[in-house]
Design brief:
Distance between the termini: 19 Å
Low-confidence stretches: 1-10, 141-147
Order of helices and strands: HEEEHEHEEEHHHEEHEEHEHEEHHH
Number of strands: 14
Amino acid sequence: MDETDTQHITEQTKEVLVLEKALEAFQRTTGLKAQCEQFDATLNGRRFDAIVRIGDPREEAERFVVEIKRIDRFDALRTIRNTFFHTLVPYPLLLVAPYITPDAAEKCREMNLPFIDTHGNAFIATPKIFIYVKGQRKAEDEPELIYGKATTATALRVVFVLLCDDGLLNAPYRQIAKAANVALGTVGWTFFDLDARGFTTGGKGKQNRRVLLERKKLIDEWVTNYPIKLRPKLGIRRLTAIDKNWWRDIDIKKYDGGWGGEIAADHYTGNLRPATVTIYVGPAARTEKLGRLIADKRLRPDPKGEIEVLERFWNLDEWEKENNFPNDAVPPLLVYADLLATLDPRDAQVGRDLYKKWIAHADAKT
């Protein structure tokens, strides 16, 4: 890869970060769902930075083609608008910028130029949507957007399935998105970031297969960020039990669950006497089957309870069957992260043993 290619990836990655942050800010300030459907799209011979969908996913949402630009003068707004109106595409234009000042926002409204920015300012006027938000301020000392978007909660899901099943590295994006339970656009954002930071290479064509580099370093990054950014979003529910050994004689799969944390670590290594219980359950199981588990084992809510129930955030059923993990335990990488997150020296030591036996052998392949 020459210097020009590296610079292109860097600039493209910056655009991805701006788009993701702007969509998050738009949802926060308006309450409307906003999602990237495709990055780097071409319609009727014209390239656009992305296609996004805005609106309730249960209804017919509006699609927009996206131009990502830094706006520092009014002339740039006119140029963007005039250039677009000479293009025949089926969707309206949406300007996405790091920041739109109140004056620039008013100018966009006058010109009927839809926009969103990374601070939650927005203007959209269509038959289905009318949004006008301005005055959301930019901090004077706010730093430039930096890399590391593979550490957002949704991107961590993608990185997890890639680290688990390296066969997904060159799989279609839709297959990866299904495995990680994320939107299709998240896969592209994640690969752009991993490419730019040197964790992956290749993937630029059918004959140029993507390769994962620095696997151990990426694992360390994932394990560090998982308890901070992804785990809190998994609907943690704490319970307690009268019989502290209730979990020993049950088939957790019967409840669409899998063991994580200390129980899984004991199944993998045989070196840990579990004091806490961690269960990952599928979304459908969080109501009906989880309720049945609670009733069957006489569990009760307790914010300080020894039982934690989290959402299963991945879909790697076939890969898990092929690897035949012991006693209904979740993948070893997740167990490793669970153990290190406790900050318990005993768990950390077992985590290191688990890493050597179940994870490190894959590092040798890269």
